[in-house]
Amino acid sequence: MELFITDERTGIDYELIGDYYLPLLKAPECSPIGRYGKLRHRYLKQNRRVLYSQLLTSGNLGTHLAEIDNSANDMMELLVKQMAKEQGVTEQLKANDQMKWVGMMNNIRSAAEEVVLNDLIYA
Questions:
Q1: Number of independent structural domains in the chain
Q2: What is the pLDDT of residues 54-79, one digit of tens each?
Q3: For residue 94, which of 22, 23, 45, 101 is within the disulfide window of CB 3.0 to 4.6 Å?
Q4: Residue 123 and residue 119: Cα distance in Å, rounded?
């Protein structure tokens, strides 16, 4: 018996281990995920098991998590800029009253992150 064979129909390679041919499966390569991708992964694994299993078995989980991570980072950046502009948080305020600027920016980031988490991560 041959040590390695390839199924012509599917293109999957098999290795002989003992008396059985086992498939040589490789996970698809994807870009590294950040904080929001990891949060989405944990949410899917704990709360949306069917969707998680479908994405995992189809090989699309890494792509999905990378897309969510990129979208969440872009949305976060856009929301922070918009909220800062609406609330009048400027470089002039930063120069005049740093503590007020820091407090306002922290509130803005928290509010923007809550929107991102509710709209993208936990949806």
A1: 1
A2: 998 888 999 999 999 999 999 999 99
A3: 101
A4: 6
